[in-house]
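name: query_chain
kind: protein
chains: 1
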Amino acid sequence: MLELTKARTTTGFVDFRVRVPDAEAEKLYAVLQAFISGLEKILSHDDEKRAPWAEMFPDTHPGVILRGAREMENLTQAGLAAKIHVTRNNISAMETGKRRITIDMAKRLAKALGCEYKIFL
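structure:
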């Protein structure tokens, strides 16, 4: 192996890859721009610009993440419910925040949606 290829050039960086439908790309871009803008405020050394996470994303809860993960897999609530052997009403209640997502349920959801269970907790 050449010496040049042995040196890691991505130290300090993490790559993310997201696949979204063409119709949703602009929405995702807007969310990412808002997120980056918020990060800049948080990481700023000027205390007046700092904002708590909950203030920046007030509507974010595990149910919102569940809905997003489900929609990325092109599953309906009924489809996801069938995969993890619960009722559609249970999925709906979790997505709206009316029902808490337990660790066991998070693991079942993660297995069905192909993601890490901790994002639902």
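note: Residues 25-43 form the longest helix (19 residues).
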